Structure formats: C-alpha cells, structure tokens
Q: What sequence folds into this?
C-alpha cells in the first residue's frame, strides 16, 4: 500500500461548485471567476471501490476541464495509481482553500456505506457551526446568545467562545443592546460567509 499526504492548494478564494454541470454523487466540477474548470472525484471505501470509481468515471461532455483531481481517503495501491494515471488524475489527500480567517480543508469520506448525514452530525465541523450562527444573526440581529445556543444545539460556553473568536477576527461586531450584547456581521464576515457557502457546496468541510 502507498500512503500519500499530498494536498492540492487553490491559489485564490474565488472557487465554487459549477451547478450547471451534471455529475455523479462522488464527482464535482468547480470553477473560478475566469471560467477555469477543475473536475474533482472523491475516492473512498476499499481499494476495489476506488479502482471501480476510477474505471467507471464519467467525464462531463462538452465541458472543457483544465485538470482532474482525485481526493482519496484511507490507503491506495499501485493499481489505484495506475488507473488514476490513465485518466490523467492527480491523487491527493485533501483540497486546501485559502480564506481571510481560516484555511479550509476538504477530504473524502472514509467509507462507501457511511451515511453522510450521520457522519456530518458526529463531526460537526467548526466552520459549519459558525455558518449556522452567522446565518441566524443575519436573519435576526436582536437574537440573544441564549437563543443562538438553542437554535444551533450548542453548549453555552462553546457558543460564547466561538462568537468571541469571531469578534476578535472582525467577522462579527459586538454592540450593546438593551441589557445585553448583540452581534452584527461585518463586511469581512459577509465575505467569509460567501467563502464558506461556496466551499461547503463541494463536500465535507473540516478545519485544519
């Protein structure tokens, strides 16, 4: 077996999933502001599963693909590498997207039969929780921390710590409101939300 810890680093933040291109469940096409398109195939499960995915890969027709990337979990062997080479696919363990505040990593899930909903619930990435908080604040400025805790199903201390960090990072601005504090999304926070939406639409998101 061959372990490969390579990462593919996107040079700009302006990448998002191309919803105009029809693909299968484990294949996505991302595009930037210039129209450059990259095909991403997520390889997971056993060695045989990964080989089958590479052998059966369906490249979208009438779409000019700049490059192809295979994001795999677990181990690979020489046969996986061979089929990837035949299809001109670069194999990596993760995709890295830059952001003003965090570096965001995208990886393939570990098992072919795992429920993505269950996996997401168990891991609950920090960025996903932040996105929930920001969406709620965007919808209702007057929402107190206690209600954010309830709506996001969070521990109170953890929620306060997240909000405090986002204030420090200038994603949120703390404002006195009546007997307590309320929070307002800053221009930097608006840009951060946009980046999170684009990246979350591709696959599972994890913090580095």
A:
């Amino acid at each position: 077996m061959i372990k490969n810890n390579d990462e593919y680093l996107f040079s700009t933040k302006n990448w998002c999933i191309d919803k105009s291109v029809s693909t299968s469940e484990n294949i996505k096409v991302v595009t930037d502001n210039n129209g450059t398109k990259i095909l991403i195939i997520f390889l997971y499960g056993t060695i045989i599963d990964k080989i089958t995915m590479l052998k059966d890969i369906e490249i979208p027709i009438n779409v000019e693909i700049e490059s192809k990337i295979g994001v795999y979990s677990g181990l690979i062997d020489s046969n996986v590498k061979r089929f990837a080479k035949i299809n001109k696919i670069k194999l990596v363990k993760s995709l890295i997207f830059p952001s003003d505040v965090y570096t965001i990593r995208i990886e393939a899930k570990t098992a072919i039969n795992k429920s993505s909903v269950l996996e997401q619930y168990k891991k609950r990435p920090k960025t996903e929780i932040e996105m929930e908080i920001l969406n709620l604040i965007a919808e209702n400025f007057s929402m107190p921390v206690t209600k954010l805790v309830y709506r996001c199903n969070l521990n109170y201390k953890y929620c306060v710590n997240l909000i405090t960090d986002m204030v420090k990072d200038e994603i949120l601005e703390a404002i006195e409101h009546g007997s307590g504090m309320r929070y307002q999304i800053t221009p930097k926070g608006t840009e951060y939300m946009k980046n999170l939406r684009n990246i979350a639409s591709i696959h599972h998101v994890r913090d580095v």
Helices lie at 47-55, 78-86, 116-123, 126-139, 145-152, 156-168, 187-200.
